[in-house]
Amino acid sequence: ITQHIGAYTAIVPGGKQISFIDTPGHAAFTAMRARGASVTDIVILVVAADDGIMPQTEEAIHHAQAAGVPIIVAINKCDLPTANPNLVKQQLAEKNLVGEDWGGQTIMVEVSAKTGKNVDKLLEMILLQAEMMELKAATDAPARGIVIEAQLDKSRGPLATVLVRQGTLKTGQNFICGMTSGRVRALLSADGARLEEVTPACPAVVLGFDGMPAVGDVLQGITDSKEARYIAEERSAMRREETL
């Protein structure tokens, strides 16, 4: 099972791209799913057509509803002879997610990850929902992103997966992130390719942190490296005082 939050970008027909944050489905990873719902614009809830709603599915619905994020349901495994999409729709209706074909407002798409059935339709629905929401972000503003995942790499030091929310994050840029600061040494895509810059709604692995950032920390681009270090030290001192 997925035991971490993955972030990657898919290019769809027409040249448009959709960034996905893949959160774990296991019940033990509640906090990760909560973080995932709080940084996304649209939640894709994947439910197996042969299993129906599980406890973690309910959990994911609650996180998305609490974050006020619209939900698109992908009913997966529709290629199986034991699939029962109508039962899934009935169970979802009991959780206040009523499909459009049942007179509700929730987009539901019956898909098969194995055969690829209706995956293109699901992507179309995501783009349509995004258009209706009129999602916009400035690329020429100061860079601002959210840390989705952070880890300490033995050879590369502290690194974090950051989802840029506005502005453009570039290699060589100074930044402050929570109680740490740094300078972007490298930007990497999900498949390890080097990037020169990252624009809004795109995730990237950022190298160059002076210390270990925390998940959920806001990364902000800043011009002066001394100022970034000063602010990080002030925040760290304030946290120490609060702890004491």
Written overview of the protein:
This protein has 244 residues and is of the alpha+beta class. The chain is built from five helices and 14 strands. The chain has helices at 30-39, 55-67, 85-93, 119-133, 225-243; strands spanning 6-11, 17-22, 43-48, 71-76, 107-110, 144-153, 157-166, 169-170, 174-177, 180-188, 194-195, 197-198, 203-209, 218-222. Strands 6-7-13-10-9-14 form a six-stranded antiparallel β-barrel. The protein has a three-stranded parallel β-sheet with strand order 3-4-5, with helices on both faces. A hairpin with a 2-residue loop joins strand 9 (174-177) and strand 10 (180-188). It starts with 5 loop residues before the first strand and ends with a helix.
Short description:
The chain is of the alpha+beta class and 244 residues long.
**In what range is the share of β-strand residues?**
25-35%
Cα shape: elongated
Percent of residues in helices comes to 25-40%
Query: In what order do the strands lie side by side in the largest sheet?
Result: 6-7-13-10-9-14
Strand/helix succession: EEHEHEHEHEEEEEEEEEH
- Which structural class do you get from the secondary structure elements? alpha+beta
* Count of helix runs: 5
Task: Give the averaged pLDDT, no decimals.
Answer: 86
Low-confidence stretches: none
Total beta strands: 14
How is the main sheet built? 6 strands, antiparallel, barrel
Distance between the termini: 39 Å
**Radius of gyration, whole Å:** 20 Å
